[in-house]
Amino acid sequence: xxxxxxxxxxxxxxxxxxxxLLKANGGRKKTVERAGILRETYPSVFVVELDQDENxxxxxxxxxxxxxxxxxxxxxxSGQEEALAVK
Length: 87
Hints:
This protein is α+β, with helices and mostly antiparallel strands and about 90 residues long. It has a single domain, classed as SH3 type barrels (Roll), CATH 2.30.30. It has two helices and six strands; from the N terminus they run αββββαββ. It has a six-stranded antiparallel β-sheet. The longest helix has 9 residues, at about 5-15.
C-alpha cells in the first residue's frame, strides 16, 4: 500500500518523545544504526536526539522522503521491545 509524506509525518507526530531505532543507509553498502528520542517534527524533517554514550553528536535529522524511499527505517520502541515499524 503506497504511503504519502503526510501519512509518515502524522505517524511520527503520534510518537513524539518516544524512543526510536534508526537504520540508515550510510553509503557504500554501509548501514548506520542509531537510537534516540524523537524530539521534533517539522513540515519537511524530523529530529532525533541521539544517545550520547553511543554517538559523537547530539542530534540527527531526516526528511520524510528518506523514510518513504526506504533510505531510513524507523522503529518505535516500547520498553525493551520493538513495537511499531514506520514504513
